Amino acid sequence: MEFYIVTLFPSAFQSYLGESILKRAIEDKKIRVSFYNPRDFAENKWNRIDRPPYGGGPGLVIEALPVVAAIAKAMARRREQDVKIIFLSPRGKQFTNEYASKVSKKYKHVIIVCGRYEGIDARVKKIFKMDEVSIGPFILTGGELPAMLVVDVIARQIPGVLGNVNSIEESRVSTSEVYTRPEILKYKSKFYRVPKILLSGHRAKIEEWKRKKAKGLHKK
């Protein structure tokens, strides 16, 4: 799968994509990540792409045409039905594992548009068919962090990225309450033990314990 990130700050992604599982996925050619900076498509010698908003208000708005040109460049020579465009916005629909799984199965190319400042001229959303997506009920200073999250969640759905298909937690009974050695941990004169059920070897009871813990986690 190929990811195309439309962002004013491509260097913000270097550390995250250069470590651990995503780094290995890129090296193994399971995924490819490319960047398209709207500044490179500005039609002025200063590469300026931000302007005051019509109707007044604080801050600056990113012009539509440089973003449109960046998206068009990413889409060049690719079949429209193979491309999913994701427009990151706090007002979008909630991004979920289910959504990520559907995207990973249906599309070969994913374009992610990162906003900044007061946002991107709304006409971009009228020119292209895209999903307006939010990672949660909060607002960040830009779309770069959400874009990293989206790439991570979708990429791990791709066969071979995690190595073991059973590592995809949502496809099995999983809980964040996990344990490893030592069996008994001592800290400040107190002892902390691994739950006995996990040491029993009784697979059915262990799975039932995990299901109960997972339900408790989802209720919080």
How would you describe what is shown here?
With 220 residues, the protein is α/β, with parallel strands linked by helices. It has seven helices and nine strands. The chain folds into two domains: 2-165, 3-Layer(aba) Sandwich (Alpha/beta knot); 173-219. Strands 2-1-6-5-7 form a five-stranded parallel β-sheet. Strand 5, helix 4 (97-106) and strand 6 form a beta-alpha-beta unit. Helix 4 packs across helix 6 (144-155). The longest helix has 17 residues, at 203-219. The radius of gyration is 22 Å and the shape is elongated. The relative contact order is 0.15. The model has no long low-confidence stretch (mean pLDDT 90).
Features:
single chain, 220 residues, alpha/beta, Alpha/beta knot, 5-stranded parallel beta sheet, two-stranded antiparallel ribbon, elongated
Helix/strand layout:
Elements: E1 2-6, H1 14-17, H2 20-27, E2 32-36, E3 50-51, E4 61-62, H3 64-75, E5 83-94, H4 97-106, E6 109-113, H5 123-127, E7 131-134, H6 144-155, E8 184-187, E9 190-193, H7 203-219
Parallel strand pairs: 1-2, 1-6, 5-6, 5-7
Antiparallel strand pairs: 3-4, 8-9
From the N-terminal CA to the C-terminal CA, the straight-line distance is 34 Å
Number of strands: 9
Low-confidence stretches: none
Name of the CATH homologous superfamily of the largest domain: SPOUT methyltransferase, trefoil knot domain
CATH class of the largest domain reads: Alpha Beta
**Strand line-up in the sheet with most strands:** 2-1-6-5-7
Radius of gyration: 22 Å
Structural domain tally: 2
Q: What percent of residues are in strands?
A: 15-25%
- Broad structural category: alpha/beta
CATH architecture of the largest domain: 3-Layer(aba) Sandwich
The largest sheet is: 5 strands, parallel
Nearest-integer average pLDDT? 90
